[in-house]
User: Fold this.
Amino acid sequence: MQPLIEVKNLKKYFEINNGIGKKKNVVKAIDDVSFTIFKGETYGLVGESGCGKSTTGRTLLKLIEATSGECIYNGKNILQMKNREMAEVRRDFQMVFQDPYSSLNPKKRIGQILEESLIIHKIGDKNSRTEMTLEILKKVGFQEEHYFRYPHEFSGGQRQRIGLARALILNPQLIICDEPVSALDVSIQSQVINLLQEVQKSFDLTYLFIAHDLSVVRHISDRIGVMYLGNIVEEAQTDELFERPLHPYTQALISAVPISHPKQAREKIKLKGEIPSPLNPPSGCVFHTRCPYATEICQSQKPDMRTFSSGRRVACHLVEE
Amino acid sequence: MQQVSINTKDLKKRMYAEQRSLWIKRFFYNKMLVFGSLLLILLGFLVLILPFFIKSDPLVMDTVNRFKAPSSEHWFGTDSYGRDVFSRVIYGGRVSIIIGLAVTLISGFFGLVIGVCSAYYRSLDHILMRFCDGLMAFPAILLAIAIMATMGPNSFNVVIALSIVFTPYVARVVRSSAIVIKEQTYIEALKSQGASAWRILALHIAPNTISPLIIQCTFIFADTILTEAALSFLGAGIPAPEPSWGNILYDGKLAIFNAWWMTAFPGVALLLTVLGLNLFGDGLRDLLDPHTNKAKK
Assistant:
């Protein structure tokens, strides 16, 4: 498989101003994250809220300026690009947002919303834009008459499909799905996920799928990266990760997924304490404050990301082959 | 391919026609808007067209017929100099409405631009808003008098002075709603597409601030007429013999117990204008808001 984008040592620090003359605090939202997304796959990014998964997605589109790091696409580092160069990358990278209610301009018709993307990228003329819009609306399950509707006339799931259509209309390479189904009803979730998988095949798409719902991520992802406090702690193929999680945090996370069978017993790993503040992250391994197996080395030394057999990567001192 | 494009063209045309008829339906469904527009059209006709057809001059004095009650000859009576109140109200309305309209449009436009820009650019925000705070700290009339005193009293200067006075109020209102809109996800979506700042500001943020803007503008129109009246009274507005609703009212105030018609008629005219404008503004806001689309097919 060919890598589509390679993210290397991505960092995003937010500075917090405490007022004039006081020391600035630094929030390490993303602290040294590296991963590769291959062409045609779905890469899931999971973690608790506030662990930096959405921030990672947004830095790739330069909605948030990264502090340092690289993101290689087509042999070029897009984080260093000027606006003009970036315009072409933006056409290839699209985003589907979490909140279906605020992601569509309430004053614009659906057709206008979709055509806006084409106008920004200067594609086609007036008629061909309309044609493309009607075509894409059909692809996501709408009729021609929906072209003139306003967003408030649609339900959450329908709006999310419109959001997907807005991403698809530019025929992109990568779609960053930022929790695309977490605001939806469970029955609607499956509908949207099925549509996502359908268009992935027909448009030959790659997804970066950001979510906190493990069952959704398990269903759609080929590979999964688990994030904790701005770090990727483990990365593996989906099946491997769920069958044999190696990192203690992943183990705890997976044991927290509800089991569908009531009599099936499973040991639940309960983590003690709260997720530490990214304002003042723990020394050494960021997870050591809550890790049931933590030893001395965990407190003093930050574990390196080590690659094991079959390409899975874990950042933990204690994991052995 | 040719076939397809013709079909979409037809389709689009048909859809637009459908939408137009829907708009017309929505317009007539909205009773407030219909009533408000009728009132404004009527007043507009009286004030802008009628002066070409009535013979009586609002400036001609007839000292023999002072303080005459309304009659068939003088419909609204005569004032302290024997001038015809009817023609004064009509002519004065022209001045008042044109000034009100001009001030509303100018301060609405600049307020919108300043408000939207200061919401979008954080660095501009501090400069523009402190400037607006400074202007708002003065009482409106005092500020207008100060500006008029430096520029001299004539109707063009009244427009400029009142525009300066009212622009910060619009800018404040627009800014506060633009700040909310700026944080919406659809703006982020546009940024991720690489839309230019101008495009986001003019085509996406500004249209979404329209409802509070319209409300504020109807207030300003009414306020302008009243402030202009106060200015005229203080001698800093429309110079004396030329009528405006404001200075007719103030002339009449002195004789309100002897000649009620001098205040009643311009007062009613002012009331109807402001009422019509408020109804029109409210209706327009509802018409432009897709959420209040009650008259569905």
Q: What stands out?
A: The first helix of chain A runs from residue 53 to 60. Chain A is about 30% helix and 25% strand. Chain A touches chain B at residues 61, 63, 83, 86-87, 90-91, 93-95, 97-99, 102-107, 113, 116-117, 120-121, 127-128, 130-131, 134, 144-145, 147-148, 150, 152, 163, 166, 170 (CB under 8 Å).
